[in-house]
Amino acid sequence: MLRQNGRAVLTLAVMALASTAALSTAARAEWPADKPIKMIVPFPAGGGTDFAGRLVAQHLSTRLKANIIVENRAGANGQVGLRAVKDAAPDGYTLGTASDGPLIYNHGLYKERLQYNTLKDFAPVGMIMKLPAMIVVHPSVPVKTLAELIKLAKDKPGELNYSSPGFGNFGHIATEFFMKGAGIKMTHVPTTGTAPAVQAVVQGAVQVHLNNLQSLLPQMQGGYVRGLGVAELTRLKNAPDLPPIAETIPGFDMAAWTAVIAPAGTPPAIIKRLSDELVSILKEPEVVALLEKQTTVPWPMPAEELGKYMAEQIPKWTKIIDDAGIQLKQ
Questions:
Q1: For an engineered disulfide with 161, which of 103, 165, 206, 291 has Cβ 3.0 to 4.6 Å away?
Q2: Which pTM does this prediction carry?
Q3: What number of helices (H) and strands (E) belong to the chain?
Q4: CA 101, CA 81: separation in Å to the nearest integer?
Q5: Residue 182 sits in which domain range?
């Protein structure tokens, strides 16, 4: 009798598991159902990450036949928005568009105070684009090449100033990386954003600035700054006369980037669908043309490849941040 009751309980348990699995499979099969998908951007509207998120949301919406709503949740260097992605249900109805800062650099900047773990709390979906960087000087600086700038900085250690959009920002970390490779020391002058940082070098308040082409190329074309090199391994279509910094500092390659993520635990079938669609979107001629017009580079990278890339980048940049002694308190 006991044995029969045990078999009955086991049978019921198996049936319950099968029923749950069937419901879960059915739910995934219906995705996206007739409900909106939220795309969280951890920065204010109008910036590069927001541009990327809205571009992807627009094209995914068409392809998935779903309503995708972009929600800007800024604060704490991207932590507020990414915490919202982390805490969301992993059902395919919450995504995030984030940049290298919150996903990579924050691990070195905040250490154990960081409110998420990029590799554990998020499922990578795919890369969107990268924003190539360049280094410029004020026209009054008596150098025409990167080698001459490095020599000047070595002759006058600490006397040259460079601006950045703020502590722990891409421009700050990129310049520290540059100084380490060049074996020089310049003095950091943090500002309150990209525009003030660019104006600082345009007006001659600082001598050097390293940041993305979007903000610096128009200033170079207008004669307000002198370009010395790009932070890519090859020359760029938008700045063909500028040599790669890597010709002077071997291996120097650094660009800001944006990618799509989802909460960890999002069903693999949904991740694959999103990743495949994203890669396809970034190969559409009109999307490529739009991104290139914005002096950005389409960077189609599927989910698995993005996951491996981020796993390599976190320890690399954490060491660079540690070596430079950069830490944020909030």
A1: 206
A2: 0.86
A3: 13, 10
A4: 13
A5: 132-247
